[in-house]
Amino acid sequence: MTTAAQYRQYAEECLTAMRASVIPEVRAALFTAAKRWTELADRTGHAEDEEPPSASASRRSTPGGTGASAQS
Question: Where are the alpha helices (DSSP H) in 1-72?
Answer without folding.
Answer: 4-20, 24-50, 52-60, 65-71
